[in-house]
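Hey everyone, long-time lurker, first post.

I ran two proteins through the pipeline my lab uses and got sequence/structure pairs for each. Pasting them in order. The first:
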Amino acid sequence: MNAVCLASFGPPDVLALAEHRDPEPPAGWVLVELRAAGLNWHDCLLRQGVYAYPLPLIMGADGAGLRRDTGEPVIIVPSLWWGEDERSPSPDFQILGDRVSGTYAELVAVPEENVWPRPSGWDWEQAAAIGLGGTTAYRAMFTRGGLQGGETVAILGAGGGVATIAVALGAMAGARVLVTSSSTEKLDRARQLGAAAGVLYTDADWPEQLTELAGRPGVDLIVDSVGADWPALLGLLNVGGRLVNFGATGGGQATVDLRPFYLGQYSILGTTMGSPRDFREMLALLAERPRWRPTLDTVRPLDQAGAAHAQMERRQHFGKLVLSCT
């Protein structure tokens, strides 16, 4: 088979397409003939060496294709060996493509429990765009954040794969969705996905603008992948509000003024990509909107994985970046 192998950490051009031996699935695993693979920011961090997993490695968490033994069109659940405790993953937990060969390939072997029927009416690229990002968004919004219909949620950085899905999920659940983004074009597109309004985080006074947009209802939940803005974010929350974080793109440290924090009865909750249960519940919510589809930005052939990584690092895309594996 052909696959994109990471042989050394570095810039996007370290990714190269080459021939590899076909995977041989052990008992309880299945072989999937991949048609498309989705990219995630997690992939860039892995390639850069932030996650120093053993190399060489075939990357990629998200994918969709044909199950070889049955011919069934399937979507891959990239959450491996989560365990029985829904509160947190087991010590054996892995994301597909970290240590186990992933989806930047023509074939991938995964545990049978990690394949799920492709949603009806979805094409390969759409199906490959929902796994990691959709599960992360669902867990942040609902499993951890406890979002309820009628509440107001602020989603930071609308434009990336997780955020675009989160906007849609929030609107489906009956919440009022506010967003931040880097351009007026992205704010307009977020409104098309279901956001009520948004502000540019490039404006120095964006927290004040977001507070004004929230108005009297205020903000009940903030979904954050930046990390460094916690002091400003806590100031946006209603009393008893929740801040859910799943990233540190703004830096690895945040300082919180403790007195306003405990007096406000706030909750700061950490989250990651979720469990297979989160994935199933996310698909169940999406099934209530059968005409909805993930937002795709660009689909490239497998041999352009490096160019796709470079595009993701420029942060100019809106929605998911996908590789065609055929």
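...and the second, right after it:
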Amino acid sequence: MSKRSTHLSRREFLKLGALLMGGRLMQRAALSLYDRADGLVGRVVADRVAAIYKEPRFHSGVVRWTRQDELLNLYYAVTPPDGPAYNPVWYRVWGGFIHSGYLQLVEFRYQQPLDAVPSAGQLGEITVPYTQAFQYSREAGWLPGYRLYYETTHWITDVVDGPDGKPWYQLTSELTDYLVYYVRAEHLRPIPDEEIAPISPELPYEAKRIVVSLKDQMLTAYEADTPVFWARISSGLSGAEVPKGTQTPRGRFHITSKSPSKHMGNVAASGAPDEYILPGVPWTSFFIFESGVAFHGTFWHNNFGIPQSHGCINMRNADAKWLFRWVTPVFPLPVTE
């Protein structure tokens, strides 16, 4: 087991403490126009500004424009008859209505930190709308790195005393042991092994089948000829098929490998929320590994039912998790000696 360690100087402590205080003030300001964040909350996920409208329909008049990662209290959901049909849900927010496609539903669920981490690592899940990760070097000290989002998954590899005197987790990317960053431990939930245990492992490989309809943007899982699971998806955008374009390839494929946490996009982080840097993409099941085409969870949009991706099959996180557990091969959990 990896024990909790301390390695911050007083200067480093004060420097990172100031950065953290700024983060808390930003979070408080994000909710300052609304009621307390004790109910349903939506994080604006659009990589461009999203509008709050006077009525639950597009072009009804814009009340104001939101910002990416802004947090909104959601009072209730409505489904007007004019849709859009593939995703008709809107939410009442302060001042008007916003379409559900622009929101990730999030919560503030603070966790009890672990005292120690298994030597093989521990898979964890972010349980707050987002948290700021930091990287550390002796030359530069502590610098903000990735912003990690709700329900993304990450490998916890150590627990240390943070600059605020509280436990922080060290996270190590599956890409390389050299890509290491730190977040507040109370923002991650350790995922127990039984939660990702295989579903129907007794069935032979050939008894499980996935059918994806690009026309209907639907996924159906079969055991023999019996459908056992359905999910609305978002496939690749129109144009040439991957790897020359962004359209999801058509054909018959097999799951080649799986990863419960996958870094997609660029590695270097500048701190800009709209960069194509996606650490911790959850529940990834590759069916064309060479070009990186996979089923996986999605936290950067909530507009399932129309093409949205660069070729992958985007799924709601819970749906991708079910599929990850159900498909073969079985993911081998780390063994702690």
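Reply from user beta_strand_b:
Welcome! Quick read of the second one: The longest strand covers residues 277-288. Residues 110 and 218 are 34 Å apart (CA to CA).
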